[in-house]
Amino acid sequence: MHKTIRIIATDLDGTMLHHDNEVSVRNYRAIEHAVNEGMLYVVATGRCRSIVPISNLPVMDYLIAENGAVIYRGGTEQVLYRQAISAAQLREAIRIGKKYHAFVELVSDGRILIEEELLRQTGQLRLTRIQEEFLREKRYLMIDSFEKYCSKVQENQDGEEIFRKFQVTKINIICQEAEAWQGAAKELEAYGLFTITSDGYGLELTKKGVSKGSAMKWLCSHLNLDLSHVMAFGDGSNDAVLLKKAGIGVAMDNAGEAVKQCADYVTGCHYEDGVAQFVEQYVLKQAI
Hints:
The chain is α/β, with parallel strands linked by helices. The protein contains 10 helices and 16 strands. The strands form 3 sheets. An 8-stranded mixed sheet has the order 5-4-3-2-1-14-15-16. It has a 6-stranded mixed sheet with strand order 8-7-6-11-13-12, with helices on one face.
């Protein structure tokens, strides 16, 4: 099948990156060569901008961050597109997270916010390696109370309440036990106003309808291109919509079966440079 590819989009964790935020020389060169052939490189990740290893990546044209809630121009802080969560939705997510004694993170302006109260509870919480690193290096933005900021709202152009001080675009709810995770997920799904993806005991929330796929659709329209011009790589549940919508969706071999079912092709694992394998064979050799 011959398709004209104009955009190569890659997820980061479990796709483009090896361990410790490293990009292999082979993956780097494959994307670099594709860009030299006139293609655009887009990173599409669940991470917020502040924890994207921009200096380790090939030069990107656009960054789709936070599971599609925000689009940046290249590695800059220039925001082209943002989908903020309303204050009412935020209040409900915080309520549910606290009910299940979860570690709650808010993402705003590419930074991760937590409540100062969490610092006094860290000894009682099982933290991920990344959370421990963030606390140790003081990379979180501390605020005294989520509820305090929920009381300071204004309306956006759609008539929804948003934070006056912060525009929250993503919420992470990290539960400590499977039972808590199941309970929180059930209540959030019943609320019905979030797009929810899951990673272990973590729940990642964005505004309903937001996904990497919806963000890519907006970006293609912005560039006068079509989704059929996109080749997308991913491994997680948050990649599924993009893999379905893209002209060519490529799942990593380390992806779950449900994700593979959304893709047109399956390539090698991330630690086997699966992105480079596919790009070298089907893009640089013009086999598709």
